[in-house]
Each structure stands twice: as structure tokens, then as C-alpha cells.
């Protein structure tokens, strides 16, 4: 585990390109003390360009070529911000991001690659650009799964990349496929003559038609229309012509070459605090074509220079090679090699390319998991059992066990005032005066994400869960923050992100941020004290009736996913989907479920624990179907692998009489949830109608069981 030092500088990586991916691996092995590292990218996963043709051909799976940016960030101790950069304000030194407050920087590096979108009518609607790679990979996989579509593929762009992908598509689709390459110039014009001849012959032998000197007018569904008249039928249109810079780069005010960021031999732009690498950069000192080999070899220099820029050290120069070995896959498991005019072709070269590509991916996929420090030989009795073998979880997984909390509260609450309604077992208090009722609750979360904006959104939804579960409307919030130790300047930056987010999110629900309190500590903790207004009687855990239906509005499995993420075991896509689920508010579902007989939100004590609370308060039992319960992507798989939240065992022992629950899937009933869904007990006759309304409002709601008369017993079937 890395030692904790106060943060004094912000280093921001914009884009998850190959250079930045390697940088994160290097940083995790040798971080610079005092630096808060942030990666901004719209996707939790990047695709490795070297294996993309093999993926299209069917030689690799999506996992084989996936660079998991979330796992890399966890390894590097970096915060991952899921968002698309929209610009850089150099005067304010902030990165502008769509849909969230800006991120401040002291030094920034840009590795956003290029795009292949074309200014052709209908391209965005009816074609797929090769870059960004991950979007293309997803589109191709979807195309292969759509069995009703045909096998006619048109590639726009006759360069090496277009030809590689064309041959891969031909191999994947088989002999019946009709593949055409269109180019406004000669196909493979920029390739040396000997290599070009061999590639053209390979295309011919595979039945691929090449048409050069073609202008495209527009694209419609399943047709590419030519400027001179006529059209080409296409079930999949692949755009691989040219390398285009992202438009927002032009607004930064840096020196550019054809829209690409000009960098010197230190990989630094015209602004000393901004570096650029990969395809989005133009090396003025030694111009080179856009190729991944340069991005990979820039990584060690970037690693040194960013550290040097943040610690007043001397920078190093990058010297790109003049020529390099070009390995081009040919669809089947063969490849062509070209260097300095020498051209070879065969299966052995594909084996060489495969070995190189897999070696690159191993660097980014083999990441050590977080362990715990060894205990001393002499220790107090019980320490080994309590310390365990894995780190304590964050979020609701870090909460005090339910039995301990119940014991602490026993005798500490009572009906001392007429205007305070004591609701034993419920998470919020109800204050009533002059005919008005106000719900009051408080909650806080230790960080499950190092992104303060994400944590604020999750913590706010989590705190308001008690308000919504009682059928109230949010009114006001007080913020309670503990920031990791950092310099005063970084405190201001972080507080600004948190408060802007809290205000924006609260306004969505008609609530006001009324103030707050802050402190410094070891880790980020975000909490809210919330009030809500309610008309009539509040929804509580009591009131369930025999035969009532149980409805759950969100899937479960957050505790397992967050425990796995802490240990570098969860997939980035699954982690981001879990964050999205936690950020989904329960305002609309609370209104839809206004006729419920009883209701609670599912949080730290897990589904079984909160259902047991309803059974205790309502003096009833419940029968639930394991098959009907929705689970988050990856949760069941991780549970089968033995991953558990640190609160799991406490939840299982404190949930009472739960029968029929065994196995990895059933264990998720005791998994602590953060900002979980509502668990509502509704009359049987209204259940189907309510489910339709909930799903129409965007909730993945499910009917999971029924109320029984076996008091205190939960039967799982």
C-alpha cells in the first residue's frame, strides 16, 4: 500500500490513450509523493489498436483487447473521472467537462487520439468510424450478433488500417460476404510498392473488390451513394479514411499543425504546463506518421517529464526512430512484415505479432491487488479475526454492524417530546408541529470513488433515500465533509467541485443547500443532513399486510462490486454501471409508490436485513424468489469468485431467520448497498400496474416476493 502524503499538486491526464495507459502502470509502481493524479475519459475501457483487426476477425475476444482504465487508476492511486473533455481554460487552469464542474490542474497531459468521422451526409447515422476504437469494437460486435442482417461490408478508406480491417471482416463473415473498399485516391497509395503489391494480391485472393478514385455523395441505410451516380449496397459501413483531430483542441489557444497539438522534444506544447502525446500530437522536431509504436515509446519520457515538471527537475528529450517494423494482419492467422523495403509474409509473422500484442496487454492487465500489512507476532486476542485478510470496505460496506447499532440505540431514544415522532427501526425522525410534518435524517459515506463529484452525487442520493422512503419531498440539506490532507489551494479546488455538484443535484429535487461543516482527515468522507416535508402519515417499515407484494426498484450487488474494485478485481464497465445505479435518484419511484403499505430503502444492512426490519416492525414474514431479484452486472460472478464486503458476515448473522438461502447468488441478499433502491410492500392488486409505471420511469424494478404470516421468517426459494 502507498503511504498517504498531503496533496499539493494536481496532475490531470485527459484521455485514456496507449501512452497514458502505460503511464498509469508506471505511476502505480513509482508515484510522486504529493501529487493527486486524475484521468478523464468518457469510457471506463479503451481498446488496444494492435489487436483490433484480430478482434474483428474473431481471433480475440473483447476482453483480450480491453484496457481497463478503472483498474489501472485503482492500481495507480488515481481518480477516474468518467466524462468527455470539452476544452481547457488555460487562464483558470481547469479542464472543462460535459455535464459536471471543471477539474483543476497544475500540469496536464493530453492523449485523446484522433477520430475517423467523415463529413459525408448520413455518415453518423449509417456508418461507423474506426476511431474511437472502443465505439467501433462495440458496433462490430453488435453487427455480428444481428443475424438478420446481411454480409455486405463497405470500407471507406484504402489505407493500411482500412485494408487490415477489411481482410479481418472478410475472414469473420466467410466466403459468402461481399466486401468492397472505396477510396477517393488509389487504394494503398502511400504504401511502398513491394508491400502494396502483396496486399493488393491478398485482397484479390480474398474476393475483396477495390475501387479507387471514388467520391461518395451520401450514405443511407444499407447503401453508399456515389457522387457520379449509382450506389453500393452495404449492411455495415466502416469509416477508415484519414486521421482527424478533435474539434475542441482548436479552442485551447495552443500552437497547432492541421489541428494537432505541436509538441517539442520534451513532449510539451506551447504552454509549458500542457503536454500532448499519441496521435493527437504533432512532433514538430521530428514529424512522423500516426502510428501506435510512437505512442508506446513516448510513455517512459512522458513519465519522467511529468514528474520533473511537478518537482522542478530537468526534462528529457524524446527521439523517435526513423523507421520501424510494420506488422500487418491479413485476416486469417497470417501477417505481412515490412521494414526498409524488405517484405515477408506468413503465419510465423502473425505469431510474432500476436506475441508482441499480448505482451503489451499483459503489462496493463497484470496488476497487483491491494493487500494488508502484516500483523505483529504479539497481538491482542481477537485482533486476527477482526483484522481479517482484506481491507475494510468503503461506502455502506464501512458502516457499523446492525447488531452493534441496535445495541447502542437501545434505551437511547424515547418519546421525550410531543412534536417528535419516534419510529423504532426506521432511519429518519419525523417532527410534527401545527399540523405540518418534517422528516429529518443524516448519513455519510467514506469514499468508494476518489472523484469528489461522483461521491457527492452518490452521497446525496443515499442521504435522500430516507426522505423518499418515507414518502416525503426533499427540503434542505447540510453538507458534512472530511477531505484528505491537502494544501489550502487543493482544498479550495475540491470544495468547489463538491459544493457546485451538491447545489446542482439538490436543485433537481427542489431542495436547498443550507450550509455545512468540513474537516481534514485520512480519507474523503461526504455526508448530508437532510430534511423533507410530508403530507399525511409517513411511510414506515410497519404496515405490511398478509398477501402484499414486495417490489424492489434497483438491482443489488454494490457491496461486492465495490469490495472487488478496491482489490483491483472488478471490471471497469461494471464499476461505472454500479456508480450510475447509485446516482439514480428515488424521487419518481417514491411518488409512484405513494400507496405502499410499508417502505424502506435498501442500504448498509442488505436486502435481507432491511426486509427483516419490515418483518419485525409489521409482525409478519416474507417469501422471496432469488430468480426474481435483479443483480448488477458482474455481482454474481464476483460473489462466485469468493468476493465479499467486509460487512457481509455481520449482515448475515443479524438478518434473523432467513431460510433456503445458500450459495454465491443467495449471499448477495446480505450484501451492503450504497444508495440502493426502495423496497416497497404494496397491495397485490396494484403490483403489476406499479411495476409498469416504475419501469416506464426508468427504474429496473422487479416484484421479488410476497408477505406471509410466519412472523420474523424470510423464506428464499
**Beta-strand proportion:** 25-35%
**Which residues form runs of ≥5 with pLDDT under 50?**
none
Biggest sheet descriptor: 7 strands, mixed
**Helix count?**
21
Q: Taking strands numbered 1, 2, ... along the chain, how are they ordered across the largest sheet?
A: 32-35-31-36-33-37-34
Report helical residue fraction. 25-40%
CATH topology of the largest domain: Phosphoribosyl-aminoimidazole Synthetase, Chain A, domain 2
Shape: globular
What is the CATH architecture assignment of the largest domain? Alpha-Beta Complex
Highest-level CATH class of the largest domain: Alpha Beta
In short:
With 717 residues, the protein is of the alpha/beta class. The strands form nine sheets. A seven-stranded mixed beta sheet has the order 32-35-31-36-33-37-34, with helices on both faces.
Please characterize this protein's 3D structure.
This protein is an alpha/beta fold and 717 residues long. The chain has 3 domains: 9-114 and 245-319, FAD/NAD(P)-binding domain, CATH 3.50.50; 123-239, FAD/NAD(P)-binding domain (3-Layer(bba) Sandwich); 395-716, PurM-like C-terminal domain (Phosphoribosyl-aminoimidazole Synthetase, Chain A, domain 2, Alpha-Beta Complex). 32% of the residues lie in helices and 26% in strands. A hairpin with a 4-residue loop joins strand 15 and strand 16 (231-233). The two termini are 42 Å apart.
Amino acid at each position: 500500500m502507498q503511504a498517504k502524503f498531503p496533496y499539493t499538486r494536481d496532475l490531470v491526464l485527459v484521455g485514456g490513450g496507449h501512452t497514458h495507459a502505460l503511464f498509469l502502470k508506471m505511476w502505480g509502481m513509482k508515484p510522486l509523493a504529493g501529487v493527486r493524479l486524475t484521468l478523464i475519459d468518457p469510457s471506463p475501457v479503451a481498446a488496444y489498436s494492435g489487436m483490433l483487426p484480430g478482434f474483428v476477425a474473431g481471433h480475440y475476444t473483447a476482453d483480450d483487447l480491453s484496457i481497463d482504465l478503472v483498474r489501472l487508476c485503482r492500481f495507480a492511486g488515481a481518480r477516474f473521472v468518467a466524462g468527455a473533455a470539452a476544452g481547457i481554460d488555460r487562464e483558470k487552469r481547469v479542464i472543462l467537462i460535459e455535464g459536471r464542474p471543471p477539474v483543476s490542474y497544475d500540469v496536464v497531459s493530453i492523449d485523446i487520439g484522433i477520430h475517423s468521422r467523415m463529413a459525408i451526409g448520413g455518415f453518423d447515422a449509417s456508418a461507423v468510424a474506426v476511431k474511437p476504437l472502443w465505439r467501433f469494437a462495440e458496433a462490430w460486435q453488435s453487427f455480428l450478433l444481428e443475424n438478420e442482417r446481411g454480409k455486405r461490408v463497405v470500407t471507406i478508406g484504402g489505407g493500411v488500417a482500412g485494408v487490415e480491417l477489411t481482410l479481418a471482416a472478410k475472414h469473420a463473415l466467410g466466403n459468402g460476404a461481399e466486401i468492397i473498399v472505396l477510396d477517393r485516391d488509389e487504394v494503398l497509395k502511400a504504401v511502398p510498392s513491394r508491400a502494396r503489391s502483396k496486399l493488393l494480391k491478398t485482397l484479390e485472393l480474398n474476393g475483396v473488390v477495390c475501387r479507387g478514385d471514388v467520391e461518395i455523395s451520401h450514405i443511407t441505410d444499407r447503401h453508399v451513394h456515389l457522387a457520379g451516380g449509382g450506389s453500393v449496397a452495404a449492411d455495415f459501413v466502416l469509416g477508415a479514411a484519414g486521421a482527424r483531430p478533435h474539434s475542441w483542441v482548436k479552442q485551447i489557444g495552443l500552437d497547432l499543425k492541421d489541428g494537432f497539438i505541436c509538441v517539442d522534444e520534451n513532449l510539451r506544447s506551447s504552454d509549458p504546463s500542457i503536454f500532448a502525446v499519441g496521435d493527437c500530437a504533432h512532433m514538430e522536431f521530428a514529424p512522423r506518421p500516426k502510428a501506435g509504436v510512437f505512442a508506446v515509446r513516448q510513455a517512459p519520457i512522458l513519465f519522467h517529464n511529468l514528474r520533473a515538471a511537478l518537482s522542478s527537475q530537468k526534462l528529457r528529450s524524446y527521439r523517435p526512430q526513423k523507421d520501424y517494423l510494420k506488422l500487418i494482419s491479413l485476416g486469417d492467422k497470417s501477417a505481412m512484415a515490412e521494414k526498409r523495403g524488405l517484405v515477408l509474409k506468413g503465419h510465423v509473422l502473425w505469431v510474432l505479432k500476436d506475441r508482441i500484442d499480448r505482451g503489451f496487454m499483459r503489462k496493463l492487465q497484470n496488476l497487483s491487488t491491494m493487500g494488508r500489512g502484516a500483523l505483529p507476532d504479539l497481538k491482542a486476542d481477537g485482533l486476527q479475526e477482526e483484522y481479517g485478510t482484506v481491507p475494510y470496505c468503503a461506502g455502506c460496506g464501512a458502516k457499523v454492524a446492525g447488531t452493534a447499532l441496535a445495541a447502542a440505540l437501545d434505551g437511547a431514544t424515547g418519546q421525550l417530546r410531543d412534536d417528535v415522532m419516534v419510529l423504532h427501526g426506521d432511519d429518519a425522525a419525523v417532527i410534527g408541529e401545527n399540523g405540518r410534518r418534517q422528516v429529518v435524517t443524516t448519513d455519510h459515506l467514506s469514499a468508494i470513488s476518489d472523484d469528489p463529484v461522483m461521491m457527492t452525487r452518490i452521497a446525496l442520493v443515499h442521504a435522500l433515500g430516507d426522505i423518499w422512503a418515507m414518502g416525503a419531498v426533499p427540503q434542505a440539506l447540510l453538507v458534512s465533509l472530511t477531505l484528505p490532507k491537502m494544501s489550502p489551494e487543493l482544498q479550495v479546488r475540491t470544495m468547489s467541485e463538491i459544493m457546485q455538484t451538491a447545489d446542482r443535484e439538490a436543485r433537481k429535487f427542489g431542495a436547498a443547500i443550507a450550509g455545512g461543516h468540513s474537516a481534514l482527515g485520512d480519507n474523503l468522507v461526504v455526508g448530508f443532513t437532510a430534511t423533507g416535508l410530508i403530507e399525511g402519515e409517513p411511510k414506515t417499515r410497519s404496515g405490511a399486510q398478509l398477501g402484499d407484494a414486495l417490489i424492489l426498484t434497483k438491482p443489488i450487488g454494490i457491496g461486492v462490486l465495490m469490495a472487488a474494485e478496491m482489490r483491483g478485481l472488478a471490471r471497469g464497465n461494471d464499476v461505472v454501471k454500479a456508480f450510475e445505479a447509485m446516482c439514480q435518484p428515488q424521487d419518481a419511484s417514491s411518488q409512484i409508490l405513494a400507496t405502499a403499505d410499508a417502505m424502506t430503502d435498501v442500504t448498509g444492512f442488505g436486502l435481507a436485513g432491511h426486509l427483516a426490519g419490515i418483518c419485525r416492525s409489521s409482525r409478519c414474514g416474507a417469501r422471496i424468489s432469488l430468480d426474481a431479484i435483479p443483480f448488477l452486472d458482474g455481482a454474481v460472478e464476483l460473489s462466485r469468485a469468493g468476493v465479499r464486503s467486509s460487512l457481509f458476515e455481520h449482515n448475515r448473522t443479524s438478518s434473523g431467520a432467513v431460510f433456503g438461502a445458500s450459495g454465491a447468488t443467495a449471499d448477495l441478499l446480505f450484501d451492503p448497498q450504497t444508495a440502493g433502491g426502495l423496497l416497497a410492500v404494496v397491495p397485490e392488486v396494484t403490483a403489476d400496474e406499479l411495476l409498469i409505471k416504475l419501469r416506464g420511469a426508468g427504474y429496473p424494478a422487479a416484484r421479488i416476493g410476497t408477505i406471509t404470516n410466519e412472523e420474523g421468517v424470510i423464506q428464499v426459494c
